[in-house]
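cron nightly-structures :: item 1 of 1
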Amino acid sequence: MRIGILSRNRNLYSTQSLVRACKERGHEVKVIDYLRCHMNITSHRPSIYLGDDELAGYDAIIPRVGASHTFYGCAVVRQFEMMGVYSLNESVAVSRSRDKLRSLQLLARKGIGLPVTTFAHDTRASKNLISICGGAPLVIKLLEGTQGVGVVLAETTKAAESVIEAFRGLNANILVQEFIAEAGGADIRCLVVGEKVVAAIKRQAKEGEFRSNLHRGGSASVVKITPEERSTAVRAANIMGLNVAGVDILRSNHGPVVMEVNSSPGLEGVETATGKDVAGMIVSFIEKNAAKGKTRTRGKG
């Protein structure tokens, strides 16, 4: 097979791991910087170029689209879909998962456990938002934030009101969520491939920090997840329409609650902690499922 990996940095661990897995299985693989691509979208024969070279003849692509380039990255994925190339995660699913508000609404509609979450435009609603979430302490998140950036723990009602007012003063969209204290600064990252959780790790925040992201100094260890957590992770990925996803779960007093569904989960933490070849499992999934024109949306979404 000829597989393209859409990634801005070929030196990233996840990109290198996927390249290795492809080569070990005898596939031809190319890392494509999607921001350097340009597209012909008007002809009867849609095409895509990297510099002067036309990117043709690919059987499958693996999108590793950065959060700050979601719009253009999804446009490139959509173009490949229009050309009949199989995409591991489709453009519609990637854009859906990147919209935190939309993704939470979709999960809630399907009955997935979530932290109590509120959203408003008018800062005069601040007191009601805080009340609905059960009062301070609570978490305030920028909708556009990633890897723990733009996430604030407000420990008092006054602090929460001030943070909400400051963010809205900058015209930033925010979510206000209940703080799951019993999680103890830890979450569970479930790596879903197809219909299975193929690996799971516990991410523990460093002392004095409530965000467990590995990029923020958190530590990772192997964890045994419950059947309910396993089912929740797979259902959440399916609701987003993602074939591969990192589903972040908190263990609350009322069962597992989903914090986020990531369409381009990092592989370093989970492969290092578990010793599993997750990249190999992803490529095996592509081998079993990729076929010309099999992408469901074909660039329509």
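cron nightly-structures :: done
The chain has a mean pLDDT of 89.
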